[in-house]
Amino acid sequence: MNYLKILLPGIFVWLCLSISFYISEQFPILKNNFNIQAIIILIMIILYSSTGVYFYYKNGSKTNGLTLGIVMSLTALILDALITVPYVEIPNGRSYQSFFSSPFLWLLALVNVITVYSLWRVKIRAKK
Q1: How far apart are CA 14 and CA 80, in angstroms?
Q2: Helix H or strand E encompassing 36
Q3: How far apart are CA 88 and CA 94, in angstroms?
């Protein structure tokens, strides 16, 4: 297994979600309504995960979809711990505990894993 190749989709998803959160904070309607922002981000993570899966499996990788989904989510969570929390959350008055205890964060991770596994099962595994 090529470790850099399996980390790239997680980095891609994390980067796209970070940009999406930043852009959504620029619109007053979204900034003040977490529910609408959450729905938009949940839809976006499905699109970003699907794109990451497409590029990962494009060259015929054989990695199990559940493994890829978990690695993608863990990569994004590690990048959150190293970059997002210290440089975005803490300056805004939040903490590691408030960030990682958010149910929405874990819902995003779960949706990512389910999306990756489902796409692998339907598109990649079905080709075998």
Answers
A1: 8
A2: helix 34-57
A3: 9
Which pLDDT value is given to residue 98?
A: 95
Residue type, 80: D
Identify the burial level of 91 via C-beta atoms within 10 angstroms of its C-beta, where 0-12 means exposed, 13-18 middle and 19 or more buried.
Answer: exposed
What is the spatial distance between Cα 53 and Cα 119, in angstroms, rounded to a whole number? 8
Question: For the segment 83-105, what is each residue's pLDDT rounded down to a tens digit?
Answer: 999 999 999 999 999 999 999 99
Tell me the pTM. Answer: 0.91
CA 10/CA 89 separation, integer angstroms: 20
Of 87, 97, 100, 69, the residue nearest 18 (C-alpha): 87
Asked whether 29 and 49 are in contact (CB, 8 A), the reply is no
CB 116 within 8 A of CB 56: no
Task: For residue 45, give the nearest of 17, 19, 76 by alpha carbon.
Answer: 17
Which two tokens mark 10? 């997680």
Which parts of the chain sit beneath pLDDT 50?
none
